[in-house]
Amino acid sequence: MAEVVIIHGAFHELWGPFRLWVRWTPSVLDGLWNARVPVQDVSLSRLQERSQVAFWGDLVRPEPRSADRQPGDDGTDDGTVGPTPDLADLLDGHPAVAGVDGAGLDALVQQVARDTNARSMELLARYVLDPDMKSRVHERLERHLDADTRVVVAHSLGTVIAYQVLCTRPDLQVDLITLGSPLGDRAMVFDTLEPAPVDGRGVWPAAVRRWTNVAAEGDLATAACPRLADRFGERVEDHLVFNGRHAHNVEPYLNSAPTGAALADALGLPRRR
Q1: Which domains does the chain have, with CATH numbers?
Q2: For 61, 89, 146, 211, which has the most beta carbons within 10 A of its beta carbon?
Q3: 0.85 cut: is pTM over it?
Q4: Which residues of 9-48 are buried (b: 16+ CB within 10 A; e: fewer)?
Q5: Which of 1, 48, 46 is nearest to 24 (CA)?
């Protein structure tokens, strides 16, 4: 089993565990480099031997429309909730935005971020309200957890999944790294958690020995409560990073120095001073 387990958030329905694992592990290595880990001792192949992605996107992949159905036929805007590409990747060099100035591009980025966050909240609601879906998603993480697991890295909605699973596993002792987490959002997430908060304070996950939370400036998923220590106690180590126009994207979260440092500590990797 893997020492490092990564669980994704929304909008990965069209991908799979191996595609995400191949794409994300170089960013994990960059994070270790940013944290001053001598990476010559941590090759990409060695890192990949120690890591796995807990994938659940296929469980929420929309069913196809029939050929005679069109967007909007079911009363929705587009009839599906699919993966959202990274906006900067989508826009870089695109002729339609070649003449847009920085302010205009920023406004476009912000609007897409709002739309993406809204769709994320829709998937979150489905996860909260559908016990069967929640059980199946939890099993996808559970299958990767055992005595060899040293750290769980979770992004976005994956942080909600990881938190609730790790609350049920007192047999484990792992570090938890949450990235772009909505866990502190009282209206949408915090008050729906299992186990329920006690006197306004979230329960510390039974499996977790150390919790590092990383939020990015401008990430709407974290806007309601970027400091999870405010909800779960001062044992949570909070960090703020700058991801630019990629505010909620997992890769700049993974390659940030706070993420790399937390991962290095979890794996017992030395860091240069």
Answers
A1: 4-58+128-267 (3.40.50)
A2: 211
A3: no
A4: bbbbbebebeebbeebbebbbbbbebbebebeebeeeebb
A5: 48
